[in-house]
Design a protein that fits this description.
Elements (H helix, E strand, L loop, with lengths): L9 H13 L6 H9 L3 H25 L5 H9 L1 H33 L6 H18 L1 H25 L17 H10 L8 H5 L7 H30 L1 H5 L4 H7 L10 H31 L9 H12 L5 H33 L9
Length: 366
Amino acid sequence: MTTRGGHIGALEGVILLFASLAAKLFLQYPAFLIDVGGPAAWQVALVMTASALLIFLPAAALARRFPGLGLGEIGQEVTGPALGTLLTLAVSAWLLAAVCITIRKVTENFIVAMLPATPPSMLIIVMLICVAYASYRGFEALARAAQILFPIVVTGLLVMLIFNLPRAEPGRLFPFWGYGLQQTALAGVVYTGMTAEAVALLVLGASFRTPDALRSSGLIGVALFGVTSAVVTAMLAMIFGPPDAAQQPFPMFTLARLVYLGRFLQRTESLIVMFWFFAAAVRIAMLFHAAAVGIADSLGLPAYRPLIFPLAVLVFSLSLLPEDFLVVLRLERDWIRTTGNLVLLIPLLLLMIAVVRRKGGTVGAP
């Protein structure tokens, strides 16, 4: 088994990336945006999306310049074994860190919602077993699973939004520019790192049928996530008000608890949390698989599967290191503002070096 593990097209790539990014909407991501943008948090989401699309274009151009290669192989081709390996390992380490933070937040939310007496370690083990199996089956199988789960995840999100529409007060979205146009624009640029997971597509570039499929997956997936983020943050601000929405530890879970379908169907948030659990599983599995493939490619290993168990043990250990949930939130917020943007710039760096050194094919329109 090579590191490629099957091939997928643009549709599967779009669904996989969107599901991976949209899982953040069930975590603290909307509260982060509302905290910095206030009533204009939805504008922060749109600015972030526009910035992310621009930054992803070099990754698309790099994939077209080196068709059939992943980030690890591209890095070694462009910069040589030493620097190329270092850059790919840095991206893989970032992806693993994202897995650790996400899996800890998912288990904490699941404990609050459904299993308050369950230790986090037990839930982490169960989720890692699912993630390891998904990675073992390969990228194509993971993409097919995401395609099946996609309607379920979207249904859960729509149910929360539609049934809470009567509680929305549009007046809470004013003043229109929130804390000021300058702060809104700056916050959008700073939080571009929230979409850094799109680099995982380039890491798995060898698994796409064509470079154009990778390009479409990244651009459309990020755009859909940005629009969905704007809608969700606007709804949260209209329902809770910006100050209260920014302080919600689990804003979407709180929104789900407000859904009332009559006495015959209560505690609907437990069902909605299950939908969100599927999205989180897709996100963690994709990032974990990309990290394993990236490490295997950078080290020149013929297969990624021997890395699955060691990486799963590492993720289990690291995810339990933060002493409480507040530490996890601080780590994610500070980490996103710094390393996320740097990870997005790595493809741009490689593209510039490739052009200067005349490596790879001719770059067409990205």
